[in-house]
Amino acid sequence: MPKALSIKQLLLLAFVLAGLLPAMLVSFLSFNQASNALKKEILHDLQTLSTTVAAGVERMMFERLQNVHSWSQLGLMQEVTIGDVDKRLSIFLSESQKAYHQEYRALHVLDLQRRVVASSHAGQIGQTLLAQPNWFTVDIGQRHLQLSTIQDDVLMITQAIEDSYTQQPVGFLVAEFNWRIVKKLLNDAVNQQAAAVLFDQSQQVLASSSNRSNVGYALHVSSALKGNVNLPGWTVQIERAHSVAVAPVHRLAYIFLALLAATLLFALFLVRPIGRAITQPVERLTEFVRSFGQASQALPPKAGPPELQELTQAFEKMIQDLEKSQDNLTRAAKLAVVGEMAAAMSHEVRTPLGILRSSADLLLREPALTADGREVLGFIISETERLNKLVSTLIDAAKPRTPNFNPIDLTQLIYHVVALLQNQAQAKQVHIGFTQNEVMTIWADQDQMTQVLMNLLINAIQILPEHGIVEIHLDKQESNMVLSVSDNGPGIRVQNQAQVFEPFFTQRAGGVGLGLAVVRQIVQSHHGEITYRNSALGGAEFTIVLPISQAS
User: Fold this and answer.
1) Is domain 404-547 annotated with CATH 3.30.565.10?
2) Which of 122, 345, 418, 520 has the smallest number of Cβ neighbours within 10 A?
3) CB atoms within 10 A of CB 448
4) In what order do the strands lie in the sheet with 431-436?
C-alpha cells in the first residue's frame, strides 16, 4: 500500500496546481496589457509635452511680433521724419526695452537710409544699421514684418513705419529679439532625461535644450506650431532616450517576475506555517483544558480557524462557569459559617451582653463610684456595644431579608446619612462632599439603602487619615441610578481587589470583613451591581448602579 501524503505535501501540491499555474497565466496576460498601456501612456505624455512646448513657442513669437507691429502704428513713430529732435522716440524705445529687458536686446528706429534716428541704446544713434539677410516674412494686420537670419542668438524683426497721411514708408522699426529666450523655454519644459528641439521647415535646428547632446537613440514626438502667426514649417520635437523611455516597462517586467518568484517561494514555505497554524491551536487548546485547576493555568489559543475559535470559546465559557460555581460554593460555605456563628451569638451572646450592659448602666448611677470605676464601666459599655453591632452584622449577612420596595428620595436619604455620620467625620476632620446632576427618586428599600450608605461611608471614614476627603456623586444614566463613593485613602491593592466583596476580607485592623459583603447582597437583591476601582482622588471608589424603577 503506498504511503499516504502528509498534510504539508498535500497543501503544497494543491497550491502549485490551483495557484501557481493560473498565477503565471494571469501574470503574463496582465504584463502584456499593462506594458502596452504603459507604452501608449509614455507616447501620449511625450505628445502632450511637445504640443504644450509648441504652443509656448508660438505664443512667445506672436507676442513679440505683435509688439513690433503695435509700436510701429503709434503716432510717436512719426518723429522719425524730423530726426527725433526732442528725443521722445528714444525715451520710448529705452523704456520699452527695459520693460522687456530679457526679450529684446535693443530697439531701433531707422530712416530710409537705415541710419539710426532713435534707439534704446543712445550710443548707436547716428550709426548706420546694415540690413541682415532676409529669412522670411510674416503678415500681421495687412502689414509685413521681416525676420532676418538668426545670428549670435539675435533675431532681427523689422517693420516699416508709414507716413500717417501718405501711407508711404518713412523709416523702419527694428527689434533685436533675444533668441536665448526660446532656448530657455525649451530647457524649462524638459528634464535631464528628455530634450526639446525647434526645427524649421527644412529640418534645420533653430533652438534646442542644452542637454540634447546627451540624448542617444531616442523616441521622437513632434508637434507643429499652429496659431495666430504663420511660422512656416516650424515644429517642436521632444526626444527621450530609449532606455529611459522604456524603463517603466522594464521595471514592470521585473515586478511581475519578482511576483512569480515570490509566489513560488511562498508555495514552498507556506505548507509549514499553515500546518502549524492548524495543529498548534489544537495543541494549545488541549493544554489549556488539561491545565484547568492546576497552579499554572495555560492561556487559551487566540488564533486558528473559526471552528476552532468557536470551540475555544465554548471551553472558556465552560471553565468560567465552573470557576463561578466554585466561587459561589466558597461564598456559600463562608455564609454558612456566618449563619452558624450568627445563630449561636443571637442566643448565647446577646443575652449576656444585655445583662452586662444593664449592669453597667445601673452601676453608673451609684453616687459613690470612683473616677476609675466610671472609666472601667465606660469600657464595658463601649465594648458590649461593639459586640452587639458585630452580632447584628453577622445576622444581616447570614439572613438578608427581602427588600420592601417603595419610592424614596435618594437625595434626601444621602443628606440624612451624612448628617448621622457628621460627628464621626468631624472627629477625624474628614470632609464629606456630595454632588448630583439632579434630584432623584427611586424604588428601593429605605432601611437597606440606608445600611448600604452607612457601611460605605463608615468604611471610608475609618480607613482615612485625618483631614481625609470623601466624595459622593449621584448621576442618572438612561433608566439607571449611578451612585459613586470615592476617597483619597490608601485604596485596595491590585492583588486584593478581586476579594473586596468576599466575607471576612478586610484591610482594617479589628475589622470583621462583612460590611461590603452585606452591601453587595443588598445591591444584588435590588437587581443592581456594585463595582470597585481606584478613584481619581488616589484611594478607593465604589460605584452602585440600580434601576430607578423596579420590575413588578
Assistant:
1) yes
2) 122
3) 22
4) 431-436, 469-477, 480-487, 540-547, 529-534
Could you report the per-residue pLDDT of 30-40, keeping only the tens digit for each?
667 766 777 78
Pick the closest to residue 198 from 219, 179, 176 (CA basis). 179
Cβ(499)–Cβ(543) under 8 Å? no
Scored b (16 or more CB within 10 A) or e, 474-494 reads bbeeeeebbbbbbbbbebbee
pLDDT range class, residue 217, cuts 50, 70, 90: very low
Determine the distance from the C-alpha atom of residue 316 to the mean position of all C-alpha atoms in its chain, rounded to a whole number.
35
* CATH code at 1-271: 3.30.450.20
Instruction: For residues 501 and 242, give the distance between their C-alpha atoms in angstroms, rounded to a whole number.
Output: 81
Beta bridge partners of 476: 481
Q: Are 396 and 451 spatial neighbours (Cβ–Cβ below 8 Å)?
A: yes
> pTM score > 0.70 for this model?
no
Q: Which residues lie across from 143 on neighbouring strands?
A: 140
Q: Which three cell numbers stand for residue 104?
A: 529684446
Q: Dig out the grid coordinates for 355 from the structure.
A: 445583662
Provide the 3-class DSSP secondary structure of residue 469.
strand
- Do residues 338 and 521 lie in contact, with contact meaning Cβ atoms separated by under 8 Å? no
> What are the boundaries of each domain within the chain?
1-271, 314-394, 404-547
Contact between residue 439 and residue 409 where contact means Cβ atoms under 8 Å apart:
yes
